[in-house]
Amino acid sequence: MEETLLDFDLRNKEEYIINMGPQHPSTHGVLRFEVCLQGEQIKYLRPHCGYIHRGIEKMSEALTYPQLIHLTDRMDYLSAHINNEAVALCVENAMGVEVSDRVKYIRTIFAELTRIASHQLWWCAFGMDLGALTTFFYGLRDREHILDIFEETTGSRLTQSFITPGGLMADVHPNFQKRIKEFITYFRKKLPEYDQLLTGNIIFRERTKGIGIMSKEAAIDYGVTGPSGRGSGFSCDIRKIAPYSAYPFVKFNEITLPDGDTYSRYVVRIKEMWESLNILEQLVDNIPQGPTMLELKAVKAPKGEYYQRVETARGELGVYIVSDGGPSPARIHYRTPNFSNLFVINKLAKGHKIADLVAISGSLDLVIPDIDR
Amino acid sequence: MYDFTPFIESITSYLNENLSPFWAGLISMVLLGVGILLFYAVLGLYLVYAERKICARMQNRMGPNRVGPGGIFQTIADLIKLLLKELIYIRNADSLLFNIAPFIVIVASIMAIGAIPFAKGLQAVDLNIGVLYILAISSMGVIGILIAGWASNSKYSVIGAMRSGAQVISYELSVGLALLGIITFAGSMQFSEIIASQEDGWWIFKGHIPAMIAFVIYLIAGTAETNRGPFDLAEAESELTAGFHTEYSGIKFAFFFLAEYMNMFIIAAIATTLFLGGWLPFHLFQWHGFNNVMDFIPPVFWFFGKTAFVIYLMMWFKWTFPRLRIDQLLALEWKYLLPINLMNLILIAFLTLMKWHF
Predict the structure, then answer these.
(1) How many Å lie between the alpha carbon of B73 and the closest alpha carbon of chain A?
(2) Residue B277's pLDDT is what?
């Protein structure tokens, strides 16, 4: 960690320090990088977070379990369903109840749709970071279809709070399966466009290949998970390691690439979109019948400590609950993927140009409210 | 058929007959200045509108469509908004340089417009070193950008300005060398003579392979010189927020904005004049019927049509390519474009000597 916790003596008047953020187009939120430059080269950088700290963990202590679901939406707002699912699974495990297969299938479908939507938005923003402005509109065009599916069933497009301890808030809309099938065929046609527009571009390859190389050891040391870690060959897919919900019932590949540069992190995400489409295809026709909500008298976790991890679109999300047997947690902690992914950036960006910093931070796919909670 | 020379000459002779030479010269200068300024403003607004519509088309959007039919008055509304906006002064900025920088940029592009031939006789000054003049004047703009970056007293602006300086100085070479090839073919630096030499065919066809190489290099280097497209490192929105014009507001920002579009027009206009025959119509060898029909279209339309085509190409680059990094940008120029260009120039000189061009 000595690389990120630089002592202040390093600073002197000779150094050219610029503040990227809290308001900066490429930090995608209120994150601040204190970048020390030598010409265009980065000598070191220090990420400062906390600008959007809302105390979600402390607030949750005053809320019951079904209530605190709504706060989890606001952490990684692009993986809202998966965040909900993490808390729901943790509480269900604590109570020792198991939801019906129907709930498991629907949860997994929502999780995979969320993953695709999140990767689409990441693709938009990544192109923007590199100066390819058209990607933004291509990605949003396709994401709209997923948000429409969400809206139809959950009534909301971004912060759905649909998954709750014990099941789902409601049953799915009658059109649900039809629209997902339409989306799969639609997006299978549109996904090659992403490659045509950006992946094959010579400038894009030059900008990303060999930039910000993260070794497998570094990924493990810093706890970089999700597509960013898998781009370094660190096989860390919770869906494979500790399958939850309907993941034991489906076949899919864990995408890992050995190079660890910005380009391989990019390719992992593009391939994950294909993989998520495969998962959706396996699930969508086989949703079993069953109740969508368990008959629970009260949602109370027995006294003890519980941990549950899930794979969000950005990596491993862990929920740690300490319960004293009451309706709300005594303590709750979220191990959020972005917090760990952020702090590797100094190691990756050091010695590169300032334009590479933008590419690297884009390839880590940071969502700032998830860092600060 | 569409010769503007008698029209211009009648005005000059009318002025000379009725006034002393001093006043005649002054009035003709004022007329020219007003004409160029009006043209500049209208064309700038039109180009901004065109870019917004074209990029909207490429991005699955509608583009401006509320103000006026098809949104054609949108840019005028934007201009009015920018005119009414507060000019923000920065406390520790060098106020003289800070205020003068936008004017340097815009004056450089206005002066370059004067030498561009829009049609036969429709040209403010037909200098005997026209190409050299335009190259010299348009590279003055970068001084404005450097001053803007320096005087803003902002770290992002300085980085943007330095990038812009390195970039324009490098790509100026390629632009100059690419144009030098055509000058070698035509044997003149005067625009009217270069166009006259293309009566029997445009240089991009007559000069075949080397001319096409020069054209491609000119397009790349020209786009880089306008700080646009994949080469917009000086503003690099995602890296430097807005680069050299981060601290500018209101009409001063509008000056930079307008100058960028006009520089694009100038680059396209030079490409048209030197490579694509300027205002000359498109002719096929012996098809007299076809050629007569082509002659019937006024030269102004030919000129603006060709320029619009080149501008469209430049917009196409901008909206489809990611941005280069500064070292890649300089490597592209010094390692690839410049050597190719020098070889190409030797080839052109050889072709001209052996009369192997058409």
Answers:
(1) 24
(2) 80
For chain B, say whether A129 makes contact (Cβ under 8 Å). Answer: yes
Domain ranges in chain B are: 82-354
Which segments in chain B show pLDDT lower than 70?
1-2, 237-238, 358
Contact A132 B58 (CB under 8 A): no
pLDDT (tens digit, 9 = 90+) per residue, B265-309? 888 988 888 888 877 777 777 777 777 777 777 888 888 888 999
For residues B257 and A40, is the Cβ–Cβ distance under 8 A?
A: no
Are B41 and B31 within 8 A, CB to CB? no
* Model-level ipTM above the cut of 0.90: no
Which chain A residue's Cα is nearest to B60? A137
Q: Which residues of B touch A262 (CB under 8 A)?
A: none
What is the pLDDT at residue A14?
66
Per the model's pLDDT, the better-predicted residue between A344 and B12 turns out to be: A344
Which residues neighbour B324 within 8 Å (Cβ) at sequence distance 6 or greater?
A203, A206, A207, B230, B231, B233, B332
**A123, A134, A140, A209: best to mutate for the B interface, most B CBs within 10 A:** A134
At A73 the pLDDT is: 87
Model's pTM, two decimal places?
0.84
Interchain proximity B58–A134, CB inside 8 Å? yes
CB-CB neighbors (< 8 A) of A37 in chain B: 159
> What fold does the segment set A56-341 form as a domain?
Cytochrome-c3 Hydrogenase; chain B (1.10.645)
pLDDT at A131: 82
Asked if the Cβ–Cβ distance from A25 to B323 is below 8 Å, we say: no
Q: What is residue B10's predicted lDDT score, i.e. its pLDDT?
A: 81
The full 3-state SS of chain B, as one line of letters, equals CCCCHHHHHHHHHHHHHHCCHHHHHHHHHHHHHHHHHHHHHHHHHHHHHHHHHHHHHHCCCCCCCCCCHHHCCHHHHHHHHHHHCCCCCCCCCCHHHHHHHHHHHHHHHHHHHCCCCCECCECCCCCCCHHHHHHHHHCCHHHHHHHHHHHCCCHHHHHHHHHHHHHHHHHHHHHHHHHHHHHHHHCCCCHHHHHHCCCCCCHHHHCHHHHHHHHHHHHHHHHHHCCCHHHCCCCCHHHHCCHHHCCCCHHHHHHHHHHHHHHHHHHHHHHHHHHCCCCCCCCCCCCHHHHHHHHHCCHHHHHHHHHHHHHHHHHHHHHHCCCCCHHHHHHHHHHHHHHHHHHHHHHHHHHHHHCCCC
CA distance A251 to chain B (A): 36
Q: Let me know: does A281 contact A124? Beta carbons within 8 Å.
A: no
Beta-carbon contacts of residue A164 (< 8 Å; ≥ 6 apart): A66, A69, A84, A88, A293
- Parse chain A into domains and list their residue ranges: 56-341
The 10s digit of each residue's pLDDT in A195-226 is 888 888 888 888 888 888 888 888 888 888 88
